[in-house]
Here is the input.
Amino acid sequence: MSENKAWWKEAVIYQIYPRSFQDTNGDGIGDLKGITSRMDYLARLGVDVIWLSPIYASPNDDNGYDIADYRAIMKDFGTMADFDEMLAAAHDHGIKLVMDLVVNHTSDEHPWFVESRSSKENPKRDYYIWRPGKGNNPPNNWESFFSGSAWQLDEATGEFYLHLFSKKQPDLNWENEKVRREVYDLMTFWCEKGIDGFRMDVISMISKVPDLPDGPRKADGYGDPMPYVCNGPQVHAFLQEMNRRVLSKYDLLTVGETAGVTIDEAKKYARADGKELGMVFQFEHVGTDGKESRLGKWTCGKPDLPFLRSILNKWQKELAGVAWNSLYLENHDQPRSVSRFGDDRPKWRVLSAKMLATMLHFQQGTPYIYQGEELGMTNSHFASIEDCEDLEEINAYRQYVEEQHLLTAEEMLAAIDRVGRDNARTPMQWSSEKNAGFTAGTPWLALNPNYREINAEAALKDPDSVFYYYQKILKLRKKHPIIVYGTFEPLLETDENVYAYARVYEGKRLLVACNWRDREVSCTLFDSTKGETILSNYPAHKEGLLQPYEARVVLEG
Ligand code: TEU
Ligand code: CA
Here is the structure.
């Protein structure tokens, strides 16, 4: 294996969703001062990097993923002075800061779009993707990822603009060189402020197939844009240009959020020669909740181990030595991992959260922790659509339940409980006090009522907490380079219950095994080992078996 060492391969990233992290002024919305105030906590956990979901000026149609000014801070979150203070505090704690870069689209309130829509002759018209309709119908059959047509008719000029996400998120036209220059300029602005990297939102979608053909028809009658917007014809050329103009001038962590990425595409995005990005987020393993799904994530089932494992192992094997993996189970778009893949019943929650952490963090790649994952935070419950804030949930409910009658309200709410994005967005649970110590006011999204038991304060008092287990994993990563650079060897690939693998490096071998079941299962992997157990969620191992949700890591040689 060609061993290209890099700080961002050795690092562990902690994702903060600022809106839900820590409020300091009682408006019920997390803010930058709140992040600054929790820097000690993050340093104690031992993370190397913070990735901040967007903090730029935004009307918050999609909680900041709709940007109205790339060089200003969202009013709810504070000021540029607060940002500078936060960045300095992070660096003082030895923590780097990665920003979210959302440049597939802007807000419809961005001045570029305000100009662009004003007339067909406006110099910024071509900053976005405008097309005449087919009669009164949209230019093609594409469905927005947030429901309904991906096209919006704009009265002023009688043309439609493309929005793959909400209609307040018009897609930028990357074919226009001026657009690309604008993007490189704003990236340079943040690099010059001293940030340490970018997470690039849906960067796999910036190049569309030019004639925008109809997509394959879906169960709800719309066409799927994916084949024509993902990994498009120019995407690698654009990223190589971005790399030449900006990325190569700084020492950055870069991770592309690449929905629809395949192994072959990932090898290009995350090329080991560093000409594009450092790594990408692939989506296959978070699409394992039922292989066949009529209405996407809303009609899925429970993920199963063999399928999930086959995907993760495939990424490990295929990218080895050619590109670098990113490792994640959670983010602000995904439900809580302990509820989805583990077991959130009180009896098993802690054990299974530790098991999942073990399974993930000892694979090869850069691991990501999403705020609250280190506490084993769980999915919440949404009794009515009125309790939801996420536009993806709300729009899907309107379309599938109210307009098309493809799902009942009960079915949709059950799906939201299972996979809705608001599960990840309930406020961070800091303590058992009022509003979990998140805010002195009214939280923008209701807390998960289990904050009285599950919170950071309780975790910090309990040596057996999920928090300290993560802390231990992060320390081990610093101590044993095999965890970062060792090659990956799958083990027991057909076992129904156990996820096991080995890592190999400089004459050493690391054995990892995780029991995915709430019962003892047979496993002889550790029976003859003379190695040292460096991590487990149980005090002692039993010959020939793994205890319920047992996870064990043994270092040999
Ligand atoms: O998500 C992109 C993306 O691929 C979504 O379709 C995602 O899969 C979906 O939200 C999961 O249900 C990014 C951001 O992470 C997300 O928060 C934004 O809403 C979206 O882009 C638009 O900017
Ligand atoms: Ca606030």
